[in-house]
Design goal:
Largest sheet: 5 strands, mixed
Low-confidence stretches: 146-165
Bound molecules: flavin mononucleotide
Strand content: 15-25%
Oligomer: single chain
Helix content: 25-40%
């Protein structure tokens, strides 16, 4: 898989053709998820696919921005053990599934929800484990995509959410990456000298809920620290998924260009001058 081009060309697709997805393609995605690198390998995660339009009707009002569900021929649902950082792990894996799906010619979009038990109920999922991700999958409908190039995307406008940025725009690197301490903006020359420009340029493309782009990074010698605009990080489902996706995008580029990346979650006992509304999530040794 060419991760770089998949990341650069990736975008959320919210309108799909009715064409069903071949079972062989779905099992390729499932197999890939079993074999691929995980953020936390000890957490068991199961992938289930829900096909047919009754799933859209069942999920309407339960999932999607303010309950405005995305209509797709198939939904990938990830079901996970409830262990520390299982949601970051789900973000990492769910986004891997999106990259694989894209490699196989499919389009996709994350779908948020607030009540995971309700998701289980409407889809008839019987398990003690937790629903940790819903991803709409299908063949993108071009005509409809063109209609919907409106800046905020019709799901935002339908659900009447105020999104200040365009739904796909990204913040510049110098606002996202700091050197040594908070506020000390990185420039491209410094990142390039440290062989990190590539990884950050791709990490910047990570999708996030409502395109909030809550991630910031501090480069401290041999460590890259991921910091998130917390918005109740401890309780927020989407923030943790966003963090996992960011870890994947940064890590996968290191994996293909430099060395095997590994994220850790231990406490870092160091004062970086991080404002109180941001939380350290983890770090990657580089
Ligand atoms: C955790 C998460 C949840 C999301 N939930 C929804 C959703 O419910 N409905 C929707 O239309 N888009 C959803 N999105 C897609 C984001 O709005 C989209 O990724 C962002 O606007 C950036 O656009 P792009 O992916 O096209 O680059 C979600 C994305 C993430 C990461």
């Amino acid at each position: 898989m060419n991760y770089k081009s998949l990341i650069m060309e990736g975008k959320s697709v919210r309108h799909f053709k009715e064409t069903p997805i071949d079972a062989k393609i779905l099992s390729e995605i499932e197999q890939y998820l079993l074999e691929c690198k995980k953020l936390i390998p000890s957490i068991e995660v199961e992938a289930r696919f829900f096909a047919g339009d009754d799933n859209y009707k069942r999920l309407y009002g339960v999932a999607g921005y303010q309950g405005v569900m995305i209509e797709a021929p198939t939904y990938l649902v990830l079901i996970s053990e409830d262990k520390p950082h299982h949601l970051e792990n789900a973000g990492y894996l769910g986004e891997r599934a999106r990259l694989k799906a894209s490699d196989l010619g499919l389009s996709s979009c994350w779908v948020t929800y607030s009540d995971r038990n309700m998701v289980k109920n409407v889809l008839g999922i019987e398990t003690d484990r937790e629903v940790v991700a819903i991803i709409a999958l299908g063949y993108g409908s071009k005509e409809k995509q063109i209609e919907n190039t409106a800046k905020t995307g019709d799901n935002y406008s339908k659900s009447n959410l105020s999104v200040t940025k365009s739904s796909t725009e990204r913040i510049p690197l110098e606002k996202m990456v700091f050197i040594d301490k908070w506020g000390n903006s990185a420039d491209t020359d410094t990142l390039s000298e440290r062989a990190l420009l590539d990884a950050f340029s791709y990490a910047r493309m990570a999708p996030s809920a409502l395109n909030k782009q809550p991630w910031r990074y501090i480069v401290d010698g041999g460590k890259v620290i991921l910091v998130l605009d917390n918005e109740e990080y401890c309780g927020s489902y989407t923030n943790k998924i966003d963090a996992g996706i960011a870890m994947l995008y940064f890590g996968v580029i290191l994996d293909v260009t430099m060395f095997d990346s590994k994220w850790g979650f231990d406490n870092l006992d160091k004062d970086y001058g991080i404002p109180s509304n941001f939380t350290v999530i983890g770090y990657c040794n580089i």
